[in-house]
Amino acid sequence: MRVLTTTVLVEDGNNTRLIPVRSRKEIPLKEHMKIMGILKKMKIGHKVGKGMVVLADAAGTGEDMIACVPSDVCRPLYMDIRKELLKSMMDGTSEK
Question: What is the value of pTM for the model shown?
Fold first, then answer.
């Protein structure tokens, strides 16, 4: 039995972020890979608050996967930052 921790993709508006999530309580080790497979495919399309359930009853274990922090405190992924920078440079709005 172990607490499972990983990250989940959140796409809220123009930003894509990876947020840390964990199980509320310990989950049997044999279920970890099944839950990781589910979370790997998951995309959340809205902002997430600390403690919000991102996956209820993970793989039938009776335990929920919850967000460790609010999604807005996580930095956008590198590609999003790069897209914003390139767009601002093309628009001529980049700061020098």
Answer: 0.77
